[in-house]
């Protein structure tokens, strides 16, 4: 009997609990989950604001409001532009990127092109005629009359280091013989009374100085001697002093130091000039 009463009481208690649970679920579905502040307010634990005063929100409520604000702010509709859409152009695969093999191939081709360009530029620079100055070029020695005055002031022998040359006077009386012995490139200057001689001795290449006492050129190396116009008179030299091609332009005496003409052969003596004083080279003889 007691056991039956206990079972009946348990059944009633289970029914009450089930009814209460169903009632709370219905309320939750209708109103949602109440916050702790709402429950406290319902219980009278939170003071209700009067007038303009508002209750102080908790940190959790503030965070919730901030999350809702971010969600709602990103849900606004954006008005699209009225411009027509741009046509899509597929990118060129060559410009998007290159694999390692393509990179190496292009690098090799680029370096080969650079090397060939440098080689071509070097060849052109080698073949292109450069402007020569000084010895090896044409030298304008100035006005003919002024040059003759300089020669006289220098004792009949004018040395010009920039052309490695001696410039002397050629006598007008010897022109008839000169036309039979010299080339036109030499006669151009001789007919104007001038001659340009290379400073080097044709024997072994020594620089030939002038001798003021004899008025000849006398080589100190091996004793070769030449008259004032470079014709050999004695010594071991195989020919007379070499000379340069000469030009006349507007009364200007131009010497082409790049065109060396071999000296006259042994025995050539167009001027007949003899030594005018003692020799500067000891033991020299005719």
Summary of the model, kept short:
With 286 residues, this protein is an alpha+beta fold. It has eight helices and ten strands. It has a four-stranded antiparallel β-sheet, with no helix packed on it. A three-stranded antiparallel β-sheet has the order 1-10-9.
Taken from the alpha-carbon principal axes, the silhouette is rod-shaped
**Mean pLDDT across residues:** 81
The residue fraction in helices comes out at 25-40%
The topology string of helices and strands comes to HHHHHEHEEHHEEEEEEE
CATH structural class of the domain at 138-261: Mainly Beta
Strand content: 15-25%
Our count of helices gives 8
**CATH fold descriptor of the domain at 138-261:** Rieske Iron-sulfur Protein
| Uncertain spans | 27-31
Biggest pleated sheet: 4 strands, antiparallel
Radius of gyration: 59 Å
The name of the CATH architecture of the domain at 138-261 is: 3-layer Sandwich
Spatial order of the strands forming the largest sheet: 5-6-7-8
What class, by secondary structure content? Answer: alpha+beta
Please name the fourth-level CATH homologous superfamily of the domain at 138-261: Rieske [2Fe-2S] iron-sulphur domain
N- and C-termini, Cα separation: 178 Å
The total of beta strands comes to: 10
Could you give the topology of this structure?
Blueprint: H1 2-31, H2 36-43, H3 59-73, H4 93-96, H5 100-127, E1 138-143, H6 144-153, E2 158-160, E3 165-169, H7 175-181, H8 184-190, E4 194-198, E5 210-211, E6 216-218, E7 225-226, E8 232-234, E9 243-249, E10 252-261
Antiparallel strand pairs: 1-10, 2-3, 3-4, 5-6, 6-7, 7-8, 9-10
């Amino acid at each position: 009997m007691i056991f039956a009463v206990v079972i009946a009481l348990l059944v009633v208690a289970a029914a009450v609990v089930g009814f209460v649970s169903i009632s709370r679920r219905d309320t939750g579905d209708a109103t949602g989950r109440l916050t702790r502040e709402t429950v406290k307010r319902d219980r009278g634990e939170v003071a209700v604001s009067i007038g303009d005063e508002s209750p102080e929100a908790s940190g959790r409520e503030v965070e919730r409001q901030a999350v809702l604000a971010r969600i709602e702010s990103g849900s606004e509709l954006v008005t699209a532009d009225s411009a027509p859409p741009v046509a899509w152009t597929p990118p060129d695969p060559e410009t998007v990127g290159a694999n390692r093999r393509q990179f190496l191939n292009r690098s090799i081709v680029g370096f080969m092109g650079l090397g060939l360009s440098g080689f071509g530029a070097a060849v052109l620079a080698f073949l292109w005629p450069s402007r020569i100055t000084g010895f090896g070029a044409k030298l304008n020695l100035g006005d003919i009359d002024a040059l003759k005055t300089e020669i006289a002031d220098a004792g009949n022998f004018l040395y010009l280091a920039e052309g490695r040359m001696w410039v002397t006077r050629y006598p007008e009386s010897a022109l008839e013989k000169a036309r039979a012995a010299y080339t036109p490139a030499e006669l151009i200057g001789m007919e104007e009374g001038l001659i340009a001689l290379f400073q080097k001795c044709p024997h072994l290449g020594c620089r030939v100085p002038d001798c003021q006492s004899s008025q000849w050129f006398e080589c100190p190396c091996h004793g070769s001697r030449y008259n004032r116009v470079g014709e050999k008179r004695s010594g071991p030299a195989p020919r007379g002093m070499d000379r340069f091609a000469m030009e006349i332009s507007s009364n200007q005496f131009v010497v082409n130091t790049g065109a060396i003409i071999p000296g006259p052969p042994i025995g050539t003596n167009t001027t007949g000039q003899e030594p005018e004083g003692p020799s500067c080279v000891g033991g020299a003889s005719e």
